[in-house]
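S.,

As promised, the LXAUTJHC run. Input:
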Amino acid sequence: MSHPPPNAPILYSFSSTEDIITPLADFVFKAQKEAIEKKGRFTLAISGGSLPKQLRGLRDLPDGAVKWNKWQVFYADERVVPLDHDDSNHRLCMAELFSHVPIPPNNIHSIDVSLLDDLEELSDAYEKELIHEFAQKDSARFPVFDLILLGIGPDGHTCSLFPGHELLAEEDRWVAYITDSPKPPLKRITLTYPVVNHAQRVAFVAAGAGKVDILPTILDEPQQGLPASRVKPVYPGQIHWFVDNAAAAKVQYPRTEYKL
Ligand SMILES: O=C1O[C@H](COP(=O)(O)O)[C@@H](O)[C@H](O)[C@H]1O
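Predicted complex:
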């Protein structure tokens, strides 16, 4: 079956990093509302790095507005370390968001730390966790997340999909592992493109001058094929960018005003 071409990204640029917080919380809130009204649950994959800090607006929404018990949260990528390690994306997301809100612990799908010494087993187990959540309910070839929240590195990587890495060509697996990450730690697991690109919505968040040199290549020259530019959800999936002016200073791509 042929699909229409992917939707063009929508870019929202804000004066400062702080100014991203309320619109981003509004965006996630609306995505969960729509998903829960339609299907009774909200499936989210979330990255680590600087992103979780930007989600703190969700902590300030009125009590009862967010249906936390309907959320099923997975990690877009995870470093292969214990869950209380400084490098753990789970630890970061707990510290910045989930430990502050009434989400049932079983709805947060972290890696199985009994498998840290066997990456094949670890990524297979995480894939099974996804299959359990999605395949029985949605019976699709790939999971369709309601929302995937992503960051970017200064080299254009996203998830743990790094420039020039063989994982960029993965077409079958839902979850894969790497042992040679250019950014420490070396060992990570990551969602693959087939999963990211089947999401209903993807939102990138990029703030600060550390992203200013890579954003023009990602947004204005997607043909260069940087990992973040390869995120193109299958139609009608939509991709949104929440950036601040410091990160977007050299980007030509047209801005859209975010409407609360
Ligand atoms: O290593 C990672 O880096 C990216 C970007 O992180 P940032 O700190 O530069 O925002 C992140 O999205 C990814 O989840 C993480 O594992």
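The two ends are 36 Å apart (CA to CA). The beta strands are 10-14, 42-46, 71-75, 77-79, 147-150, 175-178, 188-191, 201-206, 238-244.

- D.
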